[in-house]
């Protein structure tokens, strides 16, 4: 079910996905409810770390901040620029996509 | 001292600042050590909320995640896209600049 939803999102956004992935280092897709990795181009340790720290901690913290500041607002997308690369985070309802570029 | 540093940053980035502010709803500059508002275009309540939740909670959480994932990396910039607008966050050493656009 989740895989079908994910495939639909990827298909609907095929053009954007392709454009993003052209410059990407890699990506991780994780299951929000379970906190598990669904798809990844990284090794287990990196995938798990990104899922835990970004999808599991940072996204909920960002969502809480946005909602606390305006109860009618919600988080749409997160970009974390670092010295070395950028994390692009798309928080969907069932899963979270993190692209490193 | 802090005000001089801030003025230097603004002056050095005058062109970018002007370009950013053209589309901005407003901004808050806060003191990292004290957690206080230095400059703001918003009312006290909004400025305090942004300083507390974004500069005080979200930025340290993002920095920790980035460093935990790669100890030689560091947070450079944060963009929080919401349904209504976007928060652009520049975490400097002494102060944090949050622009809403």
From TrEMBL, chains A, B:
<protein>
    <submittedName>
        <fullName>(Mediterranean fruit fly) hypothetical protein</fullName>
    </submittedName>
</protein>
<dbReference type="Pfam" id="PF03259">
    <property type="entry name" value="Robl_LC7"/>
</dbReference>
<dbReference type="InterPro" id="IPR004942">
    <property type="entry name" value="Roadblock/LAMTOR2_dom"/>
</dbReference>
<comment type="similarity">
    <text>Belongs to the GAMAD family.</text>
</comment>
<feature type="domain" description="Roadblock/LAMTOR2">
    <location>
        <begin position="30"/>
        <end position="100"/>
    </location>
</feature>
């Amino acid at each position: 079910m989740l895989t079908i939803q994910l495939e639909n999102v990827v298909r609907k956004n095929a053009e954007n996905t392709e454009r993003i992935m052209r410059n990407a280092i890699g990506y991780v897709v994780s299951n929000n409810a379970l906190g598990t990795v669904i798809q990844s181009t990284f090794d287990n340790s990196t995938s798990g770390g990104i899922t835990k720290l970004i999808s599991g901690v940072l996204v909920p913290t960002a969502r809480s901040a946005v909602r606390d500041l305006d109860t009618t607002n919600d988080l749409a997308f997160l970009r974390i620029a670092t010295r070395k690369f950028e994390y692009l985070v798309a928080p969907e309802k069932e899963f979270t996509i993190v692209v490193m570029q």
